[in-house]
């Protein structure tokens, strides 16, 4: 499979706006109330937030076992991918979430979710051609039985928010909420869209994606919102703002935790509204396959994971919005920044913390020096990330020489 820049036209927008036959639902993790879960988005007025409230909404079909730090698959069923968009995986400590529940983000996918396509994959409500992503529960999360949510903000079509929830049991973690409390709140928009809406044709850049975030190599990033009620709408992910009390993890018959995953320690890093990207791990990785059961073929999608550290793989090209020149700012401990619009080098620190550099255009890529890049967040800060081998950042574009990826067929499920 060869990656090229996506081109969206007015005709495509019209086609997708009229296509409502086969939206998306998650198949991995196994959702709550699987038999009653529909593939439609949340009701525009938000009355079924969270988790598509309905009769039997929290029926447990299968408890999803999630030891901390162990890779989990995020897989989908359906064909109406609406040009992709941006997704988040979040957790609340409530076993049966309400509008007062506080959701915390464990993974963000900026663009290309649930599929990196210019339109709909198909009109098949049972289609399995969407991408399969990978996430994990952070080390140090409290042990117990909780609820996980997949949320999706589609790129093309009506301004909507999709939300499916699943029961999870976290093990190998901590007996306190320190790590949970330090995570960013889940992002909410488009319910109702009249009060606050994302912009059609853009892969929304979350203001606080968290330490674990990735972006595919074919995106049209944006962070614009429309409406006067965004402050109240976006606060819905925080609920009442009060974290629940962690309960002891309950073992499930037939389930076992992989060895080698000890309890994590609580994070000591302070959080803010700015994206907090980790400085360890892979700068580029592959989304891996592993929906529960079956022997269906799975397409491995090459992704760019914005988590810093040593690179392991990369895609062919990445063409986000125009370059953003970091704003110069003096101060001790400042970072060296090479402006993409000139050959001059400036220093930047300003009000940004944890090594982040100042920037002026949220949603834009910033080229930092000769071997780093960053994504400008809503607070005008960009966290330096290492470039993959063989790639460079110039004019706000992280690019690599021509490279193709084929399809990989996997049978059965992954085991860790």
UniProtKB/TrEMBL annotation:
Biased composition regions of type Low complexity, renumbered to the chain: 243-267, 326-354
Segments of this protein annotated with the region Disordered: 240-267, 312-354
UniProt name for this protein: Chitin-binding type-4 domain-containing protein
Protein species of origin: Friedmanniomyces endolithicus
Taxonomic lineage: Eukaryota, Fungi, Dikarya, Ascomycota, Pezizomycotina
């Amino acid at each position: 499979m060869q990656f090229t820049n996506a081109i969206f036209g007015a005709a495509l927008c019209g086609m997708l706006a009229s296509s409502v036959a086969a939206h998306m639902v998650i198949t991995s993790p196994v959702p709550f109330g699987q038999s009653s879960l529909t593939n439609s988005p949340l009701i525009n007025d938000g009355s079924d937030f969270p988790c598509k409230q309905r009769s039997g909404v929290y029926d447990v079909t299968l408890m999803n076992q999630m030891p901390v730090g162990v890779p989990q698959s995020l897989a989908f069923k359906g064909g109406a991918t609406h040009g992709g968009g941006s997704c988040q995986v979040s957790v609340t400590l409530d076993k049966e979430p309400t509008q007062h529940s506080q959701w915390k983000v464990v993974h963000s996918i900026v663009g290309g979710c649930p599929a990196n396509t210019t339109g709909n994959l198909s009109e098949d409500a049972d289609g399995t051609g969407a991408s399969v992503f990978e996430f994990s529960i952070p080390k140090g999360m409290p042990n117990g039985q909780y609820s996980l949510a997949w949320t999706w903000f589609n790129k093309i079509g009506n301004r909507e928010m999709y939300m499916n929830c699943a029961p999870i049991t976290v093990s190998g973690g901590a007996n306190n909420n320190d790590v949970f409390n330090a995570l960013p709140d889940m992002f909410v928009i488009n319910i109702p869209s009249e009060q606050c809406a994302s912009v059609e044709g853009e892969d929304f850049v979350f203001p606080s994606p968290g330490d674990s975030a990735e972006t595919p190599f074919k995106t049209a990033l944006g962070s614009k919102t429309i409406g006067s009620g965004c402050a109240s709408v976006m606060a819905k992910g925080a609920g009442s703002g009060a974290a629940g009390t962690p309960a002891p993890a309950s073992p499930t018959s037939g389930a076992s935790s992989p060895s080698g995953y000890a309890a994590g320690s609580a994070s000591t890093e302070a959080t803010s509204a700015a994206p907090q990207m980790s400085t360890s791990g892979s700068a580029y990785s592959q989304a891996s396959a592993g929906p529960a059961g079956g022997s269906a073929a799975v397409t491995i999608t090459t992704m760019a994971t914005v988590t810093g550290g040593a690179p392991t793989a990369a895609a062919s090209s990445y063409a986000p919005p125009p370059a953003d020149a970091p704003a110069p700012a003096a101060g001790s401990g400042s970072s060296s920044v090479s402006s993409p619009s000139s050959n001059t080098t400036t220093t930047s620190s300003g009000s940004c913390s944890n090594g982040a550099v100042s920037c002026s255009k949220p949603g834009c890529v910033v080229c930092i020096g000769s071997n780093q890049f960053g994504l400008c967040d809503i607070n005008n800060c960009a966290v330096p990330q290492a470039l993959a081998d063989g790639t460079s950042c110039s004019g706000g574009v992280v690019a690599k020489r021509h490279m193709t990826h084929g399809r990989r067929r996997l049978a059965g499920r992954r085991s860790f």
